[in-house]
Amino acid sequence: MSKKIEGDELDDGWPKWLVDNIPTEVLAGLVPKSADSYDKLAKVRQGTYSKVYKARDRDTGKIVALKKVRFNTSEPECVKFVAREIMILQKLNHPNIISLEGLATSRKHYSLYLVFDFVLSDLTKVITRPGERLTEPQIKCYMQQLLSGLQHCHERGILHRDIKGSNLLIDRNGVLKIANFGLANSFSPKPERPLTSRVVTLWYRAPELLLGSTDYGVGIDLWSAGCLLAEMFVGRPILPGRTEVEQLHRILKLCGTPSEDFWKKMKLPSSFRPPQHYKPGYQEVFGDFPDSSVGLLTMLLALDPSYRGTAASALQSEFFSSSPLACDLSGLPVIYEEEEEPYKTKQSSKKEKQKGRESCNSASSTSSSVKPIKHEENLRALLSTDQAHPNATQNIQNLTLLQASTADIIKYRLDNPQYRSSVSRLDFRTLNLDKISKLFGCGAKNR
After folding, report:
1. What CATH number belongs to 2-117?
2. Which of 118, 297, 302, 440 could form a disulfide with 405 if both were Cys (CB 3.0 to 4.6 A apart)?
3. Spans of biased composition, class Basic and acidic residues (predicted)?
4. Active site residue 11
């Protein structure tokens, strides 16, 4: 039944602009709520198609996450993606998958918000804790949770298509929750139409996707899970390619060059063939890993997706049954306080102490407050982070020249605080040849 409220026509409590564009079965079981029912506290994530806010429910005081999705009624594809994400989330019900708590709409701006429990941390933050490395029992616990969540998705015909550390939320109890189903889609053994290969963040993208496959299955999520398993052991991404071509070569250096049978079996649209023969590099990369983990890693990171098995078969791996066993949730690292305010107080205290130390150092000696980067390897490690989007450099002019110039001077200039400050304020997207020459020319000559 339709009715008018404050000049806006509603249908069963939903704005008409939403009901006219989203199938009613997608909204079934959800309670209409206004975006005005929430106070936005902070923006915590910005994506291509969405923004995530930390917010407080005015009625209950509960802290929630509001995911504002792009909803343009003039773009049918955009509307379809939103409807698909909501429908997929409603199909899933598992402890290791984020739960859709509701939908909220803004009548003024025709905005749609997905409401979730607010979770402060994620697996990337856990892995990159300064000076700390996850233990084998902790890695097993996180990996079991990830595979359990994936098993639930795959058994219901859902591919996530963007498994990475920042999309695996960790709540205050250590429970891992697969989140961000914006790229997720349904799949079947005999698909009616091709799927896009332009999915999954580059460092976690399976080789068949890089080669343009449009007929794929659970193997793409399992490849990403394998990348994360190795990442938990070494503390950084293992395949940090800058371009799709470089990413593919990194994969071949790890897995080796495939046989001709592989190319025939895959029926790929790409005519790519590696220009050189690679021997498998598993031993070099995984040499220091526990023996029981190597079998699971080589299975999940197999070039042929049919060899990767399923999430259910991965959970039966020797890795999980051998000693030491996975720890309980209580044995996982605590990286924030249970209550929000103590966490803020703790962080503020640290910042104040740091400011005090910097002030003292500055008074005694300006140069002594600058800590030079001694090794180029350390710099590369600092830059190896999945917080940078793989397409971040696509709009930079003269990128090749800029990279060469930067590499030439980077180890001579970074101990100069004035130079570091000037470079940090540059907009690299607009650098032309004259600016590059002025910026880097003197350094190259006078080093």
Report:
1. 3.30.200.20
2. 440
3. 349-358
4. no
